[in-house]
Amino acid sequence: MENELSWFDRVITPKTKAYKDFAKEVENTSPEIFYRDGERKFSEREKKFMQIHKSTANKIVQGSAYTVNTIFDVDTDTSVKTNYKSSAEVVRFINKQKTDGRILIIQDNTAFTELTIDNEAAKQKYLSDSWAKELEVRTDLSFGMTTSEIDDRQADHYRKYEIEVKK
Question: In the prediction, which pLDDT does 122 show?
């Protein structure tokens, strides 16, 4: 994608006030509102800004251990990348997400692994596995929780996973 951008678009455009305002709007607005659940129509200028923003977002941010790429529409390549410093932040984010028509790609930048969540069963399996890891090694995800509370969370997500697999 970066090869498609002209020198002017890669170097000069990101320094303009219009682009900075657009980038700030993308970063500070929830994806559902920004894309209006896939119904937003972008002008040619906004499409170019989005292309520039995606090319700079592909670079791994220093200090981000995890990256979650949320794809809202595969046909139009409508997606947002978000960086997280801990797996606890990722688990909290994934737990809040809906999976209807979305694809979530979780990249562990320290272990160089990638996991794709494209349905509710995969989401619940990931959450169950994450809580099971908390039983072994505690992180800030389970801060202040007892072992039985962590086990209950893990079991709850695993039951939801089993229900989704049967569907």
Answer: 93
